[in-house]
Amino acid sequence: MHTSRHAFTPVPNTEAPVMIATKCLACKDATGAMIKHTIQRRAVGSKDVHIKVSYSGICHSDIHTGRGEWGPQQYPLCVGHEILGKVVAVGDSVTKVKVGDTAGVGCMVGSCRTCPECKEGDEQYCSGGGMVGTYGSKGLPEELYPGGQTHGGYSSDIVVDQDFVLNVPDKMNVAAAAPLLCAGITCYEPFVKHGMKAGENLGVVGLGGLGHMAVKIGKAMGLNVTVFTRDPKKVEMAKAMGATNVVISSDKEAMGAAAKSLHYIYNCIAFDHDVDMYLNLLRNQGTMIMIGGVPKGAMPGGSFALIGRGLKLAGSLIGGIKQTQDMIDFCAKHDILCDIELIPATPEAVDKAWDRAVASDVKFRFVIDTAATI
Asked: Cis peptide before 76, with omega less than 30 degrees from 0?
């Protein structure tokens, strides 16, 4: 075989991979006030996926974290864990997605992947050091997370290990699909884990960002959904989403009529309230699933409220990656999307949206139009 004397000899590339400068909105301090900022994402590694962010949903967790209500943070901090976008680059070992695909990132971007919980698909309960949250996780390797902490989706770009990337059908590449990455899985996971069956009765306490998704997903699963709300203006909204019944929780007569009627209650109230009044709505041996954090005063009757009727009180935290993928596929099949208000990626717009979210002045989720306006 003839070989040219001038054959090219490749020269190894010894230059360090280039990090990705990423425009974002970030909390400047514990007030949560937004500023325009630039962060660095790691260079795309062999198993990494680089996503150009299209939409980022606003979750109440963003507000609690950004304002330091769940502990001290390192600022500036970019939050957001309801991320939808387009794949623009992949590492040479990536098989899950390809350039041009629609992809999502939810509430976590890493875990140990070797503990029993991770092996069972419950990475959110990782006991090998805990899951790596999409934002606000600190003390991390600089080579993976520049600055030593994670930053979220109120940003132009994100780089994530393929194991924590979700495949999203192209028809779901819309702003109203972004909140599924948190609100959707926070409903779907406990419904599946507790074995809810078509024809059973589900109560949804609170018709907000989580509650309205619980109604839609519960309806699609064939459950008879009863919504409990303080706001009479939400009655017709709940019925339009698929609720079979709506009860005004301040109406003692209506609450009495609903006593012992429910197999399950999905309680997403995130402030102090009397849980006992809702336990009374469960059938014997029924289950209440607590999603909203209630710091104190939840059960004035103590455990006796559970013991006498064999009731169960369960907590639930998002879902693992496989279950999140199942949720996306389920919502795509049943054409389930969130009810949203789309806002621009400006500090002023996000500051206002946060204040409105705290005041429950949104129906039912804000989404940032990231690609168009950041």
From this structure: yes
Q: How far apart are CA 264 and CA 7, in angstroms?
A: 72
Give 245's strand partners: 226
- Distance, in Å, from the CA atom of 96 to the CA atom of 165, rounded to the nearest integer, reads 8
Report yes or no: 179 and 57 within 8 Å, Cβ to Cβ.
Answer: yes
Separation between Cα atoms, residue 373 and residue 39, nearest integer Å? 17
Q: Which residues have C-beta within 8 Å of that of residue 331, sequence separation ≥ 6? A: 172, 177, 180, 184, 217, 337
Helix (H), strand (E) at residue 2? none
Beta-strand ranges (E) seen in the chain are 20-27, 34-41, 48-57, 83-90, 102-105, 108-110, 132-133, 157-161, 166-167, 201-205, 224-229, 245-248, 262-267, 282-290, 312-315, 340-344, 365-369
Position 142 confidence tier, pLDDT thresholds 50, 70, 90: very high
Question: In whole numbers, what is the pLDDT of the chain averaged over residues?
Answer: 93
The SS3 call for residue 117 is: helix
Q: What are the pLDDT digits (tens) for 300-332?
A: 777 888 999 999 999 999 999 999 999 999 999
281, amino acid identity: L
How far apart are the C-alpha atoms of 99 and 325, rounded to whole Å?
19
The answer to whether 292 and 315 have CB atoms below 8 angstroms apart is no
224-229 and 245-248 beta bridge pairing? parallel
Q: Which of 97, 63, 69, 96 is nearest to 81 (CA)?
A: 63
How many other CB atoms sit within 10 Å of the CB of residue 230? 12
Would you place residue 293 in the very low, low, confident or very high pLDDT band (cuts 50, 70, 90)? confident
What are the DSSP calls for 153-195, one per residue? SSBSEEEEEGGG-EE--GGG-SGGGGGGGTHHHHHHHHHHHTT
pLDDT digits (tens, 9 = 90+) for 82-140: 999 999 999 999 999 999 999 999 999 999 999 999 999 999 999 999 999 999 999 99
Measure Cα distances from 48 to 76, 86, 93, 114, 156 in Å: 25, 14, 8, 19, 17
